[in-house]
Design a protein that fits this description.
Distance between the termini: 49 Å
Radius of gyration: 25 Å
Oligomer: single chain
Number of helices: 3
Length: 523
């Protein structure tokens, strides 16, 4: 895995309007984190400050009077600074921890305090003999042996740790850590602790006022399909598909009057000298050379602005090892007067495969099996699904959901069949004679053009809603529905000899999109 260490040689203490009024939090870390690590202080509003860790001692000005402290390594939250919740023994030998205290820790530090020496225990740096005046004792986080339960699993808690509503309510101040798992909502991929990734969770909490969202797009042709149950998944295959097809849509935290830079730390797909570029053709590197159009001040951080889609589009060029759910980014927003603030955001998850079709039946006829080992597999441009020259056309599709990488710390298998998606058929272009591409098509088919008898599918306002949750991958986890293609085309003509490409899309609530494109040809 290639990681760039842009921050390794820098000691960054970004002063914000709120941070400049705060006194620093001081302490030391035993042992020192890996080279290139960054210390981040995040307040309840989501605003943050950061500094590169170059030695054991640290001194960071938080963005507010109280903040949580995290260590970022290789682009992900690797450790959290916590204080053991202990009882004072009568022996006079100081503060001691008992077995019960290991299941709860304090996570919020006060500005202006020297918190002393913290020692690493698993994925937490723990202060076991604290002055409790340095922490906010009304905020407690669930922990296992002093390690907050959300840390290793990026917030996607294991079923045995799933947090009930009563558990959430037991926390006295769940302001920016709603589920009390140790990760503030801005960097928690499951901020309400229900086991559903936030981008797919309609009950997810309201994000902090200062945070930004990131979602991924991954659309593949039938020829390039990539699905565990259809084609199998290999590192080489996923790397090739991701590098050539994956894009990210990044919400811009700053206003039009402010300058916003993306600080990716060591993440190679959006840092200087990395693999990132500007879509669709990817010929312009991001952030590119110092002094260029995306790095005018030459500081190595790319300037981002809203494009036609309302966000900033990035082609990652990343391989599987270089991008994953839980990647943490910072945006540095500079006001016209020069005051700078930092805003954190997290890549909630990233597609590593596409949906796939197992069988397709035309007008309720016999199902045709798609052989993914064939050089011209059914549905590809060289072997379109054949339908009659005239008349109505409906397709009954049985297929497999896309997979995501499982989170071992949450008790998941290597791959998980992704649930909770919105499933739609999109027709972006009108039918045309081969090899041409038609003009604008009708787009996403309206709800009235779908029918289903699948236990887990429901017709909703935008198409189909998958009610099945994430589940360890299995070839038996199929879905089935019928789409009225001619009804979706409506007034758009489809003549004999013309072919049309359809996108089978799986989408999240926030816009993540994976699709398999397939071809249908009128005789």
């Amino acid at each position: 895995m290639i990681r760039h260490t842009l921050l390794a040689a820098l000691t960054l203490i970004i002063v914000t309007t709120s941070a400049s009024a705060q006194r620093a939090i001081r302490g030391s870390l035993q042992p020192k984190p890996a080279d290139g690590a960054t210390l981040i202080a995040i307040g309840d509003s989501g605003e943050s400050t950061s500094m590169a860790i170059t030695r054991k001692k640290f001194r960071i000005k938080p963005p507010a009077k109280k903040a949580r402290l995290y260590i970022l390594e290789d682009g992900q939250i690797a450790s959290q600074l916590v204080v053991a919740r202990c009882k004072q023994k009568k022996s006079g030998r100081g503060v001691k921890c008992n077995a019960r205290s290991k299941s709860n820790v304090y996570t919020v530090f006060r500005a202006g305090k020297n918190i002393g020496k913290l020692k690493k225990l698993g994925s937490a740096y723990v202060l076991k003999t604290p002055s409790l005046s340095s922490v906010v004792r009304s905020v407690k986080t669930s922990a296992t042996n002093f390690v907050p339960i959300g840390l290793d699993s990026k917030g996607l808690v294991a079923p045995s740790q799933n947090l009930s509503a009563n558990h959430v309510a037991s926390f006295e101040e769940p302001v920016s850590d709603f589920d009390g798992d140790g990760l503030v909502d801005a960097i928690d991929i499951d901020d309400d602790g229900d086991g559903i990734i936030d981008n797919y969770d309609t009950s997810s909490t309201t994000p902090p006022s200062e945070s930004f969202s990131v979602f991924s797009n991954f659309k593949l042709s039938m020829e390039d399909s990539l699905n565990l149950h259809a084609t199998g998944l290999t590192t080489e295959g996923m790397d090739n598909a991701l590098q050539n097809n994956q894009t990210l849509a990044i919400q811009v935290a700053g206003t039009e009057e402010e300058t916003t830079e993306l600080d990716c730390g060591t993440l190679s797909y959006c840092s200087a000298g990395g693999t990132g570029s500007i879509p669709p053709n990817g010929t312009t590197d991001f952030p590119g050379l110092p002094g260029g159009s995306y790095d005018p001040d030459g500081d190595g951080l790319g300037t981002i602005t809203r494009g036609g889609t309302g966000d900033f589009q990035l082609k990652t060029g990343a391989s599987l090892a270089d991008i994953q759910g839980g990647d943490t980014l910072l945006q540095k927003v500079t006001e016209a007067g020069g005051t700078t603030r930092e805003v954190p955001g997290t890549l909630n998850f990233v597609f590593t495969s596409s949906p796939a079709m197992k069988t397709v039946a035309v007008n309720a006829g016999a199902p045709q099996t798609i052989n993914y080992l064939a050089s011209d597999r059914l549905g590809s441009l060289n072997n379109c699904i054949q339908v009659s020259a005239t008349g109505d056309v409906s397709l009954t599709i049985t297929g497999w959901r896309p997979q995501r990488l499982g989170v071992a710390e949450a008790g998941e298998d290597t791959y998980v069949d992704l649930g909770h998606s919105k499933i739609t058929i999109d027709i972006p272009n009108a039918p045309a004679l081969p090899p041409g591409i038609g003009g604008s098509g009708p787009g996403n088919c309206a709800a009235e053009h779908y029918s289903e008898s699948d236990t887990y599918l429901q017709i909703g306002a935008e198409g189909l809603q998958d009610t099945r949750g994430d589940i360890d991958a299995s070839v038996d986890n199929t879905y089935t529905f019928t789409i009225d293609v001619t009804g979706c085309l409506g007034a758009t003509p489809w003549n004999s000899g013309e072919r049309v490409q359809l996108d089978l899309q799986f989408r999240s609530n926030d816009g993540d999109n994976a699709a398999q494109k397939f071809c249908v040809l009128r005789d």
